[in-house]
Amino acid sequence: MIRAVLVDDDQGNLQTLKLCLADFNKFVEVVGSFTSPLKAMAEIKRLNPDVLFLDIDMPVINGLSLAKETIGHYGDLVFVTAHEKYWKEAFGIHAFQFLLKPIKDEKIAALVTDLKEREKNGWLGLWQQRIQDLEDANKDASQHVDYIWLMGSKSGLDKVYWKDIVLLEKSKQSNELIIYTQNGIAYRKKNTTLLIVENDIAKIEKTFKEKFWRINDQQIVNLNYAASFYPNNKLLMLNETVNTLRPEYPLTITRPDALSRIDKNKLQSRP
């Protein structure tokens, strides 16, 4: 069951959203609804909902500020607003979805489907941003996918640029993914598969030049940090600027595939 909190200073809009979600009460439980964003702030921190629905234009504190103040106390963030102009700021603070009023049943149905899938497969901060939604709206997605938000050591979200990610590694001991950055920080995310990551990277690579390659069953490498390939010995060597990780990793790909990738990315190949 997905636990939801709703915040909108307009009681009518709040009731409309409740009624739409009521059609999906087998999957979504509204555990709190508020017309006062200040009252909502304390309750969000107490309830820790799986999804937070926020209006944006509200008195005293708007939805964007409320989302920032309660980061780490909710799972997915959904903005429900009448103002399209806020879409850039909304996706900039890791919104899962940006819905324009008036709310329609089909929009909520599609959203609940996405939330159910997210609950099943887990998520990586902003890993699965609404890239396709932005493309469909003729927006410049490259401005929004060059970084992701990942949970840091102090329960806050760190802004991590894709260019700084060296290696993504599936843990052998637990159901989590470890994300290593060039500055030596390792982020851990539970309930995430390499398949999910690969699917999103395929979309992201279309919008900027970072190139990631799954080299074996456990690891995906940023090729900007690769120094050499040894197709015969099936090894990949990281360059010397990455001193926080071990220097070599096994390749479980075929030799032709390795040689093709080496040639395509102008990488150094050694016997």
Can you walk me through this structure?
There is one protein chain. By secondary structure, the chain is an alpha/beta fold. It has two domains: 120 residues, Rossmann fold (3-Layer(aba) Sandwich), CATH 3.40.50; 108 residues, Beta Barrel (OB fold (Dihydrolipoamide Acetyltransferase, E2P)). The chain is built from eight helices and 16 strands. Strands 2-1-3-4-5 form a five-stranded parallel beta sheet, with helices on both faces. It has a five-stranded antiparallel beta sheet with strand order 10-9-8-12-11, covered by helices on one side. The longest helix has 17 residues. The protein is elongated, with a radius of gyration of 21 Å. The chain starts with a strand and ends with a strand. 31% of the residues are buried. About 8% of the residues have low confidence.
Q: Brief description of this entry?
A:
The chain has 271 residues and is α/β, with parallel strands linked by helices.
